[in-house]
Amino acid sequence: QDGCFSESGPLGSGQMSVAGGVDSSLYPVAVLIDELRHDDLQLRVNAVKQLGTIATALGPERTREELLPFLQEIIDDEDDV
Questions:
Q1: DSSP helix/strand/coil, 50
Q2: How far is CA 4 from the centre of its chain?
Q3: pLDDT band at 4 (very low <50, low <70, confident <90, very high)
Q4: In terms of Cα–Cα distance, which of 63, 22, 19, 64 is closest to 38?
């Protein structure tokens, strides 16, 4: 793991922006991850449509170990609202 997504967890489960301080090759992915947590519903919907891009950039292992738990956390947070 290269630590690109290290805001309180592998994919930045904290409230801070993931995009800040990320390796430039992963910056677009970090922006999409930030948008997955955004208050604006349309930004979140657009980010969900790009999940394939995020998964491809992360690769199978990081998708399985980091992205899927991150998405589950987002879903659980929404269920609490």
A1: coil
A2: 11
A3: very low
A4: 19
More confident residue, 24 or 7: 24
CB within 8 A of 50, min separation 6: which ones?
32
Secondary structure element (H or E) that encloses residue 48, with its range: helix 41-49
pTM (global) more than 0.90: no
Q: Pick from 51, 55, 66, 57: which is nearest to 1 by CA?
A: 66
Q: What angle do CA 40, 75, 29 make, to 5 degrees?
A: 60
Distance separating alpha carbons of residues 37 and 15, to the nearest angstrom: 8
Taking the CA atoms of 71, 37, 56 and 53 in sequence, report the sign of the dihedral they define: positive
